[in-house]
Amino acid sequence: MTKLKKIKSDKINEYLFNADVQKINKTGEPVFIVAGNFSSQEKADPLLNVEISLRKCQRVGLFEHYGKKT
Amino acid sequence: MDKEISEKYKKDYDAVLLMYSTLKRLNGGCVNTFEQRLRSQKMQYLAQVFAISPAYKFNLYLRGPYSPDLAHDLFELQNAKINIKKEEFTPKELEERFIKARNFIEDKTTRQLELISTSHWLSTIAKLTKEKIVQKLKKWKEASDSEIIETFNFIEKL
Predict the structure, then answer these.
(1) Residue B65, exposed/middle/buried by CB under 10 A (0-12, 13-18, 19+)?
(2) Position B78 pLDDT exceeds 90
(3) How far is B1 from chain A (nearest CA, A)?
(4) Would you call A61 helix, strand, or coil by DSSP?
(5) N or C: which end of chain B has fewer CB atoms below 10 A?
(6) Contact yes or no for B90 and A15 at CB 8 A
(7) Neighboring chain B residues of A50 at a CB cutoff of 8 Å
(8) Are B47 and B26 in contact (CB under 8 A)?
(9) Looking at the complex, does the CB of residue B94 fall below 8 Å from at least one CB of chain A?
(10) Interior CA angle at B77 toward B46 and B124, to 5°?
(11) Where is average pLDDT lowest: B87-96, B126-135, B141-150?
(12) Per-residue confidence (pLDDT) for residue A66, from 0 to 100
C-alpha cells in the first residue's frame, strides 16, 4: 500500500461486499482505510476514493486503528 | 497507466473517468454546444454538492460557477473519443447519493441549474446573505421574483 486514508467508521461489509478486505487487529474504533495515492484528489469524498480504488481493482482494507503509518 | 494519457488531464485520470461516468449517467458531459457545456458545468457543480463526483475548483463567471479545468478535461475526453461505461457506484451510500442528485437535477432546466448553482456558490463560497444573493440574481441574471423564490426553494432541498 502506498498511502492510507480514513474513510468510514462502520458498515464495511455493506459497502465493500465484493472488495478484497483485510482486517488488521489493533486498538480503537473500526474504520475504513483505502489504499492508493490521493494527493491530487483535492477534497474528494473518501467514498469516491473507495469507488476509484474498486474500479481500479485496488485492494481496499479495513483497519481498526488509524493515525499511525501502517 | 500510460503517463502520456494521464498528463493530458487536469486531475488524476481515474478521477476524470469517474467524473465523466457520473455526468453521462446524468445525461451530461457533452461539450458540442454552448448549452451542453453550460449544463455539464452546472451538473458537475451540483454533483460535487451531492459528493458523487471528484472535486473540481469552480469560480464564478457570467453564467454562474465555472471550472476551466473541467472544461479542459471534458474536451480532452471528447477528443479522445472515450466511450465510458455507465456503471453504478459500488458503495451503496454513494449510489443512494447519486439517485438523490439525479432526482434533483434531471427535471431542471439549464436556467434553473444556473440560478441554483450561482446562489449556492454565493452562499457557501462568497458567504453572502440571502438579501445580497437576491440583489445579485436580479442584477446579474435578471431573475424574476418567482424565479428567485423557486431557486431558494430548490436550494433548501440540497
Answers:
(1) buried
(2) yes
(3) 11
(4) strand
(5) N
(6) yes
(7) 90-91
(8) yes
(9) yes
(10) 20
(11) B87-96
(12) 36
Say if A1 is an interface residue toward chain B (CB within 8 Å).
Answer: no
- Residue A45: closest C-alpha in chain B: B51
Cell of B93: 451510500
What is the grid cell recorded at B28?
A: 451530461
- Quote the CA–CA distance of B107 and B113 in Å, as a whole number: 10
Return the amino acid letter for B34: F
Percentage, residues of chain B above pLDDT 90: 82
Dihedral (Cα; B30, B88, B48, B27), 10-degree rounding: 30
Tell me how many degrees the CA angle A40-A45-A49 measures, rounded to the nearest 5: 65
Q: What is the ipTM of this complex?
A: 0.81
Cell of residue B44, nine digits: 458537475
> What is the pLDDT at residue B45?
97
Radius of gyration of chain B (CA): 16
Between CA B77 and CA B30 the distance in angstroms is 10
Question: Best residue in A32, A51, A57, A58 to probe B by mutation, most B CBs within 10 Å?
Answer: A51
Residue A45 near residue A58, CB atoms below 8 Å: no
Percent of chain A, pLDDT > 90?
Answer: 0
Q: What is the structure's pLDDT at B56?
A: 94
Contact across the interface for B55 and A44, Cβ inside 8 Å: yes
CA–CA separation, B134 and B119 (whole Å): 8
Q: Does B92 touch chain A (CB under 8 A)?
A: yes
Cβ(A9)–Cβ(A29) under 8 Å?
A: yes
Stated pTM of the model: 0.80
